[in-house]
């Protein structure tokens, strides 16, 4: 059972985007950072454990050519081995900041060269993989940036081709959970990144100085707005309300959940305990327990809890602590972050 | 965001505008032939080929200010006149209605069905005018050509673009409050029951498969809602059962049209952000706007047909009162195009601009009817 905790007010309401909440847990400093996209600006704020807001900052999308002010598509903290960077994607480019948003350390302008007149040009989908940050594009390409331990000397090291439609989300294996695909399988393949796109296609990658495409998991006519990766299992949320779990190395479907009545907008993981959170435009947030069956080692899913956020088209949801005992939710048009914790 | 959103925004808002005008014309007992003329004039201006051509070009959405200017022009495409307060209210009702429809669309693609519902109703208004009917059908074809092949992902982007446009609008509408589709805080009710989107299964099932793809386990869970599968998919053909009720005329019965201003807007900071848009952008937008409105062929009233004023409120006093008490953050600033003429060097643009008339100045008379109207305005 979960109960509503004190909400955290936002300066601006949340935009109707997917994955519109990023959380950086800093248990050592007893702080939690939240990031929400409003539209042409994104709001960062830090809060104490009871949800008391401490500091806030607004970031703007960097201007460029065009009629209207550029819109931000996503804001996300990337935890790298030696530093944490905040990444902001928009219709003009990619902005990277120090984790508190105080200093921009890198700007990459989008090259709209290949786009036809009818294509929207934007960056979307952000994830950290080792010392790389991967960012998705409207074209389906994924840019891989090499991040130094400190300083602004960030370099675009690779451009991954695997998708033909706009990237929606990218997920990487959480550092602690880095395992081989399956004990009995070829130990050479380590699937540690998955990318998803508007057609529902998933690509599974192995990171490295050069990223290698391991598997492709085809879509079925609906977008896959959100994806997670845990111990060799891909969890994907789809536009028709389904959550599907696949074996990352082979692409085999193992679990199919008719989870929501509307499009899924966010998935999150509490990797230490194997909890998965799914949120959708149907106003519901569901929490699932992932495990491996004793026979066969297949991934299994059990429903733990469902929470209705009345009259709210949820657009972002994240766990707020490593044990998955609390989570936060943002909703379209809502100027606050809703918090829930288990009793 | 998506560059394919403007036609859908324009046609649906236009449809809502016609529903409201039709109802007010009847409520105010405007003679049938006059009422029909007004609707015919507006519809034929809306679906003018040159205008539609501009509209359907891939482009970013206009600002709320710019779009409001287009509807001001459209509402005055005939012998009917609206005071500022009535025009404001009309626009409030239009925007909240379409916001509601977009929000409640089960699938992003269903916004096309909502558009078709509006077009079907528009055709009902002009049944006796084959030329205009043909124009509407042509627009239908264009919609099918452009949107028929879009993917679910592209429709999702269009939906997100529309919702960003409507963000932070919380005007309370009587008819919505009465029907319990809007809460007293201005937010729409999102039901957790009813028909599912086409292609979505009833939530509540977890199926597990082995390596060979065989189902090895099936477990139900309690999902919290009370949904049923959609009976059938709405038709995207020229004629057909749309199934979806969103976008049909909710004013066909004599329904109350009040809007509530107090406490209507939240996030004042977010609102004022919109009205202080930097000037360099405004000029670019002005160019697009001029091209769009330039394509509108507004018919000058011909013959001795006298104009009349439509009131969106029940009495003139109410209308005056509404004008005085409208909260500042909800002022729709209509773009004063003539004031920026000195910035334009383009001749063609200047010519189109010359055809614009500022709304609150008496119109240059082209006929007896206009003279009468000008005199009435000065009373």
Structure, explained:
The complex is a heterodimer of chains A (343) and B (379). Chain A has 343 residues and is mostly beta strands. Chain A contains no helices and 28 strands. Chain A has a single domain (2-176, 189-342), classed as 7 Propeller (Methylamine Dehydrogenase, Chain H). Chain A has strands at residues 2-9, 22-26, 31-37, 41-47, 53-60, 72-79, 84-90, 93-98, 104-109, 123-129, 132-137, 142-146, 155-160, 167-172, 193-197, 202-206, 212-217, 226-230, 233-237, 242-247, 253-258, 264-270, 275-280, 284-292, 299-308, 314-319, 326-331, 336-342. In chain A, the strands form seven sheets. In chain A, strands 1-28-27-26 form a four-stranded antiparallel sheet, with no helix packed on it. Chain A has a four-stranded antiparallel sheet with strand order 2-3-4-5, with no helix packed on it. Chain A is globular, with a radius of gyration of 19 Å. By secondary structure, chain B is mainly alpha-helical. Chain B has a domain at 5-191 and 236-252 and 307-356. Chain B is built from 14 helices and eight strands. Chain B has helices at 6-27, 32-46, 49-55, 64-75, 84-104, 110-125, 130-147, 152-165, 174-178, 268-275, 279-294, 316-325, 347-354, 368-378; strands at 80-82, 172-173, 193-195, 205-209, 215-220, 226-228, 259-260, 308-310. In chain B, helix 1 crosses helix 5 (84-104), helix 1 (6-27) runs parallel beside helix 6 (110-125) and helix 4 runs parallel beside helix 11 (279-294). The interface between A and B is large, with 65 and 65 residues. Strand 21 of chain A pairs antiparallel with strand 4 (205-209) of chain B, so a sheet runs across the interface.
What's the average pLDDT of chain A? 92
Order of the strands making up the biggest sheet of chain A: 1-28-27-26
Silhouette of chain A: globular
Overall helicity of chain B: 40-55%
| N-to-C SSE string of chain B, H for helix and E for strand | HHHHEHHHHEHEEEEEHHEHHH
Tell me which CATH architecture of chain A applies here. Answer: 7 Propeller
For the sheet with most strands of chain B, the description reads:
2 strands, parallel
Tell me which protein chains meet in the greatest interface and how many residues each side has: A-B, 65 and 65 residues
């Amino acid at each position: 059972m979960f109960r509503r905790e004190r909400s955290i007010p936002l300066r601006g309401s949340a935009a109707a985007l997917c994955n519109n909440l990023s959380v950086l847990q800093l248990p050592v400093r007893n702080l939690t950072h939240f990031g929400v996209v409003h539209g042409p600006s994104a709001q960062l704020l830090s809060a104490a454990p009871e949800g008391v807001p401490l500091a806030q900052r607004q970031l703007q999308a960097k201007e460029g050519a065009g009629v209207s002010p550029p819109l931000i598509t996503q804001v996300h903290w990337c935890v790298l081995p030696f530093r944490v960077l905040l990444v902001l994607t928009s219709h003009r480019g990619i902005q990277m900041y120090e984790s508190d948003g105080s200093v921009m350390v890198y700007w990459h302008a989008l090259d709209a060269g290949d786009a036809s007149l009818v294509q929207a040009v934007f960056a979307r989908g952000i994830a950290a993989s080792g010392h790389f940050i991967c960012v998705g594009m409207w074209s389906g390409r994924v840019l891989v940036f090499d991040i130094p331990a400190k300083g602004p000397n960030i370099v675009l090291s690779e451009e991954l081709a695997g998708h033909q439609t706009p990237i929606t989300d990218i997920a990487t294996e959480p550092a602690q959970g880095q395992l081989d695909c399956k004990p009995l399988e070829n130990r050479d393949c380590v699937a540690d990144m998955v990318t998803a796109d508007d057609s529902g296609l998933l690509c599974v990658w192995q990171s490295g100085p050069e990223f290698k495409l391991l598997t492709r998991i085809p879509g079925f006519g609906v977008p896959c707005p959100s994806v997670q990766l845990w111990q060799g299992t891909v969890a994907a949320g789809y536009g028709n309300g389904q959550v599907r779990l696949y074996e990352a190395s082979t692409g085999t479907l193992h679990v199919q959940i008719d989870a929501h009545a509307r499009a899924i907008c966010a998935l999150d993981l509490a990797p230490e305990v194997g909890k998965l959170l799914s949120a959708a435009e149907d106003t519901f947030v569901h929490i699932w327990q992932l495990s491996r069956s004793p026979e066969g080692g297949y991934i299994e899913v059990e429903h733990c809890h469902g929470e209705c956020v009345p009259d709210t088209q949820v657009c972002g949801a994240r766990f707020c602590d490593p044990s998955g005992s609390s989570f936060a939710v943002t909703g379209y048009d809502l100027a606050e972050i809703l918090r829930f914790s288990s009793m | 965001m998506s560059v394919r959103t403007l036609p859908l925004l324009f046609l649906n808002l236009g449809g809502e505008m016609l529903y409201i005008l039709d109802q007010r014309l009847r409520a105010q007992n405007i003679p049938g032939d006059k009422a029909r003329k007004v609707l015919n004039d507006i519809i034929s201006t809306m679906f003018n080929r040159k205008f539609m051509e501009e509209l359907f070009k891939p482009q970013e959405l206009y600002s709320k200010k710019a779009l409001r200017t287009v509807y001001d022009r459209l509402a005055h495409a005939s012998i009917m006149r609206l005071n500022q307060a009535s025009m404001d209210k009309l626009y409030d009702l239009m925007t909240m209605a379409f916001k509601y429809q977009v929000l409640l669309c089960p699938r992003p693609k269903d916004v096309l069905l909502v558009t078709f519902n509006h077009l079907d109703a528009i055709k009902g208004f002009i049944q006796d005018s084959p030329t205009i009917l043909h124009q509407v059908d042509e627009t239908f074809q264009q919609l099918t050509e452009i949107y028929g092949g879009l993917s679910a992902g592209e429709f999702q982007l269009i939906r997100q673009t529309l919702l960003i446009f409507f963000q932070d609008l919380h005007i309370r509408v009587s008819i919505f409050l009465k029907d319990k589709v809007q809460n007293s805080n201005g937010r729409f009710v999102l039901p957790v029951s009813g028909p599912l989107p086409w292609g979505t299964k009833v939530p509540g099932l977890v199926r597990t498969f082995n390596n060979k793809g065989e189902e090895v386990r099936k477990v139900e869970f309690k999902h919290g809602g009370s949904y049923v599968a959609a009976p059938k998919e709405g038709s995207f053909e020229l004629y057909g059962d749309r199934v979806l009720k969103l976008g049909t005329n909710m004013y066909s019965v004599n329904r109350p049209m009040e809007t509530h201003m107090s406490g209507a807007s939240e996030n004042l900071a977010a609102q004022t952000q919109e009205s202080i848009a930097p000037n360099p952008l405004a000029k670019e937008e002005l160019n697009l706007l001029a091209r769009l409105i330039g394509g509108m062929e507004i018919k000058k009233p011909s013959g001795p047909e006298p104009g009349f004023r439509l009131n969106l409120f029940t009495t003139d006093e109410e209308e005056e009162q509404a004008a005085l008490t409208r909260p500042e953050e909800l002022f729709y600033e209509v773009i004063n195009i003539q004031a920026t003429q000195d910035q334009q060097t383009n001749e063609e643009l200047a010519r189109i601009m010359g055809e614009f008339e500022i709304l609150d100045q008496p119109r240059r008379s082209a006929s007896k009817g206009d003279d009468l109207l000008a005199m009435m305005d000065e009373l």
